[in-house]
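Lab channel / #folding
Pinned by the channel admin:
"Please post every new chain as: sequence first, then the structure tokens as a reply. Keep commentary short and put observations after the output so the thread stays searchable."

First post following the new format, from NK:
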Amino acid sequence: MAIKTSTRPDSGPDRTVLVIYGTRPEAIKMAPVVRELAASPFFRPVVAVTGQHRSMLDQVNNLFGIVPDVDLDVLQQGQTLAGVTTRSLGGLEAAITEIQPHIVIVQGDTTTTFTGALAAFYLGVPVAHLEAGLRTNDPTSPFPEEINRRLTTQLADLHLAPTPTSRDNLLAEGVKPDTVLVVGNTVIDSLLWVVKEPVPKDDPLLAELERNASGDRPVLLVTAHRRESWGEPMRNIGKALAQLATERPDLLIVFPIHRNPTVRGAIMPAVSGLTNVVVSDPADYTAFAHLMSRATIVLTDSGGVQEEAPSLGKPVLVMRDNTERPEGVDAGTVALVGTDPRRIVDGVGRLLDEPAAYAAMAEAVNPYGDGGAARRSVAALAHYFGLGPPVDEFVPRFRPPVGPATIGVPRQARTAVGRSASRASTGATDDHQPVQVNQIHPERT
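Reply from TO:
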């Protein structure tokens, strides 16, 4: 779906919505909204991207058939937060001035989110904030996301909260109740669409997984990139993965690693040469969704993965000391393990060795969405402009939205996966082919 830039109409119900995003997670969560806007009789979507992420952003746009009307391409080698902020702010101010939208919609908590809202505010254009109200109450964690979303709240006119908890956070800060609506999280909309797509046959990581993780071999899917974990915390993650790989040779660890050389430099020395660790470039979104579906456990510091994996019935261990998504912790599908190697190793080990503990997390409540968040979000925009009725809010479900075939306790958890620990002493690895770590040449992003 290619969207053509249009100027603000002088009259009539057709209103221009400028959709602004810059990173892969934003693109995943904005794509269903762009599609819904394009199908609406009331709105004309125009897409502006900052290119805060480059190749990963482009991959998601291509997947959903979105051709941005404006691409600022702010990414520079060795960029700083201040540099991204100033380049994005100036470029988005110019784009808003030219396009003259009726409203700007931003998502989440990135630098693009904050600068998009600020540029619109400076120009007197209303702002809708998708995924509003997430909080850790620690300004430094996650950094700089916690401050970005707090500042965006101050600039927004319409707050589209993903959960009742997020709504309550906003109301506690004095946001007017009639500007807040619980719509669910659009990441579930995207996920449920993507997992219905065929498994990509040409993805090298999925192909390697198919060759080396047949049957009931447990798979630990890992992602890590948080800025506040750079340095010693990230090196500790590498140590934990190395310990798990050494003590549990039957465990296959799959790590589509972020392109940032700081992340790679901290992780790669610890896991290089371990035959049951697969490190690859970041998987595209379709491949990653299928990786999550195949995984036994997900170990991550990502916010979006905390929302996605529960919809596939996967226990999530979060390598952070706090989370702006406490709903998963409260529901029991997410647990915080921080970046201490002992806590990570113990957390993974408990899920592998104790079927009851695994079942308790895998079959827990999915509190994040039901696939209708984009529809509610666009209906909320229509109501904001007086073009439609009030919107029925999202009420969290008490069963994961994906069918029974993809949820529950995998066979290896039901049949004492802990046997892999005993094999560590003998070096036994069944008849699985050894998997070599892919040595990746660092790329600066």
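NK: The domain at 15-182 is CATH 3.40.50.2000 (Rossmann fold).
TO: also worth noting, The first strand starts at residue 15 and ends at 21.
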